[in-house]
């Protein structure tokens, strides 16, 4: 047995990078395995899917800022990627999710009207969960090689400081990305409702992060699209060929405007049209395995699915924009004390207690839990109590955002 393992290890070592990566990610396989091991989670996933399907008609939204923390867990110096490489990844994410990338010319006319601005901005966290100043990048040296794959005591070691990794920041308010070397699959992401909260996020191998440093020579995966793809899974998007393996035209990714397809396009940069299930495949979609240089778009249907998944399973991210602002703007304890919601749940008028000085002016906006702007106005502080008109709104949960004078504040509102 030992000799067999040595021979296998030698053969793996002889493979080139392009031969080694048999697929770009293993997120869907991890989800399937988790559901098989935890049958009770299947019902929760079904409830999430039902909610998502009911919400997919929502279109009008207000862009949200989502803080990201990178945990660089390195064993060799090469794995300790630079801040510059991580910043290049943030640039890619924001171009891809806001449809401002330079790949728009790759979208054929058939699909151009379907290409979506996801209206999600990603920032490096500027505030830690306890309100301290940070640059959103944590570094931890480990004695374990291939830390991104290591499982110990049934847990992903990279997600735990006690096991040589780095503890997650509040996974309800931050997207946690662990950068650690992986041996067989470049990356994996947690679908909503999958696994332990302490492991919720994305694990990615260093050469697949960003466009500079070790990523620059990692062709054809050198343009940062691996993390774009994995964030799609994190927000509950499937591969375009569906949740199972390729080769079937009977599976669906549960998105109406992405045509059925049976191919992954791994290692390909094809030309349009490509037909695998009777219609042209949207092979340039970020949720395929196409080479980085040939990825270009999310669809409107995928956008609706992502926003519905945020509202249902990751609502804390809608309230997390404060973590994108430096502590020096307003100290976190100060800021949280500036406004307090009273009588929440509320009726026709939302009452606020404020400690803001008289004469300060703030802009407020009330949005639905999936980001649709409903009402907005201005608060000119005269006294300690302020009111916001919420009459005529349906019962349910909403988010109140207040900004101005160096303040970014948000709170959840319940209307009865």
Descriptive overview:
The chain is α/β, with parallel strands linked by helices and 416 residues long. It folds into 2 domains: 16-313, Collagenase (Catalytic Domain) (3-Layer(aba) Sandwich), CATH 3.40.390.10; 329-415, Immunoglobulin-like (Sandwich), CATH 2.60.40.3080. It contains 9 helices and 15 strands. It has helices spanning 2-14, 17-20, 27-37, 39-55, 83-97, 109-112, 225-234, 300-313, 332-338, and strands at 64-74, 120-124, 137-141, 151-152, 155-156, 175-179, 187-189, 202-204, 339-342, 349-354, 361-368, 373-380, 385-389, 396-404, 407-415. Strands 1, 2, 3, 6, 7 and 8 form a 6-stranded mixed sheet that branches. It has a 4-stranded antiparallel sheet with strand order 12-11-14-15, with no helix packed on it. Strands 9-10-13 form a 3-stranded antiparallel sheet. Strand 4 (151-152) and strand 5 form a beta hairpin. Helix 4 (39-55) crosses helix 8. It is globular and about 65 Å long. The model is unreliable at 1-20 and 329-333 (pLDDT under 50).
């Amino acid at each position: 047995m030992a000799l067999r393992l040595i021979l296998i290890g030698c053969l793996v070592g002889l493979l080139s990078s392009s031969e080694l990566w048999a697929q770009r990610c293993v997120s869907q396989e991890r989800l399937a395995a988790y559901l098989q091991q935890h049958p009770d989670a299947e019902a929760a996933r079904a409830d999430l899917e039902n909610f998502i399907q009911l919400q997919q008609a929502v279109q009008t939204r207000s862009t949200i800022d989502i803080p990201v923390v990178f945990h660089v867990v390195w064993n060799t110096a090469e794995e300790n990627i630079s801040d510059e490489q991580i910043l290049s990844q943030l640039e890619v994410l924001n171009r891809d999710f806001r449809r401002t990338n330079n790949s728009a010319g790759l979208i054929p006319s058939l699909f151009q009207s379907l290409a979506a601005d996801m209206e999600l901005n990603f920032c490096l966290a500027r505030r830690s969960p306890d309100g301290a100043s940070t640059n959103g990048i944590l570094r931890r040296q480990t004695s374990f090689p291939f830390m991104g794959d290591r499982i110990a005591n049934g847990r992903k070691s990279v997600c735990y400081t006690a096991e040589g990794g780095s503890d997650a920041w509040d996974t309800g308010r931050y997207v946690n990305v662990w950068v650690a070397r992986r041996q067989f699959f470049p990356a994996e992401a947690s679908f909503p409702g999958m696994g332990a909260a302490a492991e919720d996020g994305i694990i990615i191998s260093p050469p697949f992060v960003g466009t500079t440093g070790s990523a620059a020579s990692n062709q054809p995966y050198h343009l940062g699209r691996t993390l774009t793809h994995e964030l799609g899974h994190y927000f509950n998007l499937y591969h375009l060929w569906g949740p199972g393996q390729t080769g079937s035209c009977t599976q669906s990714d549960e998105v109406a405007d992405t045509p059925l397809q049976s191919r992954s396009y791994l290692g390909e940069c094809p030309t349009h049209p490509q037909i695998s299930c009777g219609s042209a495949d949207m092979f340039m979609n970020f949720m395929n395995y196409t080479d980085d240089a040939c990825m270009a778009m999310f669809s409107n249907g995928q956008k609706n699915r992502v926003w519905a998944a945020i509202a249902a399973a990751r609502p804390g991210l809608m309230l997390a924009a404060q973590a994108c602002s430096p502590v020096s703007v307003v100290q976190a304890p100060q800021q949280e004390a500036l406004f307090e919601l009273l009588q929440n749940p509320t009726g026709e008028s939302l009452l606020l207690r404020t400690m803001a000085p008289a004469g300060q002016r703030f802009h407020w906006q009330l949005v639905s839990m999936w980001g649709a702007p409903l009402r907005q106005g201005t608060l000119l502080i005269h006294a300690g109590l302020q009111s916001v008109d919420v009459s005529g709104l349906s019962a349910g949960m909403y988010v109140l955002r207040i900004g101005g004078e160096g303040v970014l504040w948000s709170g959840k509102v319940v209307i009865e």
